[in-house]
Amino acid sequence: MRLVITGGLAGVVILCHVPQASAQAGGGGPLKQRIQSKIEAEVAQKKAEAEAQIEEKLASMPNPAEVAQIRQVQTALNFFEFDAGPVDGVMGEQSRTAIEGYQAYLAYPVTGQLTEAEGQFLVGSYQKAQEDPATTQKVAGAHPDGIKGLLLVYRDAIAQKGTVAVGVMPTFSVPVAGAALSDRCLKLAEAGPGAIAGANPAPKDSATLALSLAFCAARDVVIAESTAAAARAVGFTPAQIEQQCLGFAPALASLVALLPENPPGDVVSAASAFIERTGQPPEQMAGIAATCLGVGYRTDRMDLAIGSAQILSGLGQATYGELLGHHLALGFGAGPRPDLGLAWYDWAFATGDSAQWGADAPDRVAQILAAANTLNQPNDGSAAATGATMPSFTVPPTKE
Q: I need a labelling partner for 114 at 20 to 30 A (CA). Which of 160, 177, 371, 378 fits?
């Protein structure tokens, strides 16, 4: 489009210069000078008009990110039987009429323009419906409104869970009072080297501390990489990326629910199937998951962090399986299931890059496995007899 418009401008300028050159060829003289001045003025005017047309055309060209968002909206509208027409990324009259139908169905103000919350609920509901097609069809078949009724089912499910709702899916959750990973990492950072200087702590306390240190170190790396990736993103601010990641979390719920009850192989297979259903290229999905992983850890949204790590594991990036092992072994967002945590550590270290989270600690794998094995040992009651031998910092309960 830019080349076509620029070519047109060049043509205007060339054509306009032809009579100017002709006028100059005849030499000076008052009449010819007036003619030349008039021609020059017309050339300048036409050039300005052409430039204005170019700016107008360029301004009207759609932003690729906006086109992608419109396509998502159109796909979701069509799925829920609000006819938006072709999925072409153009917000035309038919798409606006479909939006009005969607808004009216959910008792939103009928404007033909989606608010951010309305759009997130629409697209999030579509993604949720794609997670388990068999269940989706079963629920839709039992509802008097069919596929449309899924929107009411999803909305009501949110309300029944006690989430503050105004008819739209929120992009946040209120965590249950308890331990937060950020709190533990902050306490470890404040304790510094003293965190490991206790006198003969109980074996399981030492194991928990070792895994916590490894987890917090990995968390720091993930957050830094995610922040850098968000800063490089084209067309979106870091705040917008964070909101999109938080809005993506509900779509990961069924995948996250598999973690505390299934071995790594089954979870990885489910993650691979989830990725296939999204229709996203693997490279794009990896970028989304890696960025949202950092958002999850930075905001203490363990569901988003776990789901993103599962996606990356499903893409063959086994290193992220270590993070899932930490979640299960320490009970952040899942578990605690030290047995499954150990299984994830074994899976990750067998095929992943164990140095990604601690290149300066060559024995970290052995330390993690030793700690994980310790947590899997039967409780011998030694923890209750340690008293003053415990480290001086306080670690809140691990079960959320």
A: 160
Closest to 107 measured CA to CA, from 70, 144, 150, 152: 152
Hey, what amino acid is at 52? A
Please, which pLDDT band fits residue 200 given cuts at 50, 70 and 90? low
Q: Are 71 and 87 in contact (CB under 8 A)?
A: yes
Q: Which residue has the tokens 């310790």?
A: 374
What is the pLDDT, as a whole number, of residue 35?
Answer: 87
In Å, how far are 188, 249, 269 from 354, measured between CA atoms?
22, 27, 22
Complete DSSP assignment for 272-341: HHHHHHHT--HHHHHHHHHHHHHHHHHTT-HHHHHHHHHHHHHTT-GGGHHHHHHHHHHTSSS---HHHH
| Residue 237 half-sphere exposure toward CB, CA atoms < 13 A | 3
Q: Which residues contact 365 (CB under 8 A, 6 or more apart)?
A: 349, 354
Report the alpha-carbon distance of residue 23 to residue 374 in Å, rounded: 95
Report the C-alpha gap between 326 and 336 in whole angstroms.
Answer: 10
H helix runs in 143-281, sequence order: 149-160, 181-191, 203-232, 238-248, 253-256, 264-278
CA atoms within 13 A on the CB side of 129: 26
Q: 348, 372 in Cβ contact below 8 A?
A: no
Decide: pTM greater than 0.70.
Answer: no
Whole-number Å distance between alpha carbons of 187 and 394: 7
Peptide bond into 238 cis (omega under 30): no
Query: What does pLDDT average to over the chain?
Result: 79
Section 156-174 average pLDDT: 45
pLDDT in tens, 59-108: 666 677 788 889 999 999 999 999 999 998 899 999 999 999 999 999 88
Question: Could you state, in order of their start, the residue ranges of all structural domains in the chain?
Answer: 2-60, 64-160, 181-389
pLDDT in tens, 231-254: 887 788 888 888 888 888 888 888
* pLDDT for residue 381: 42
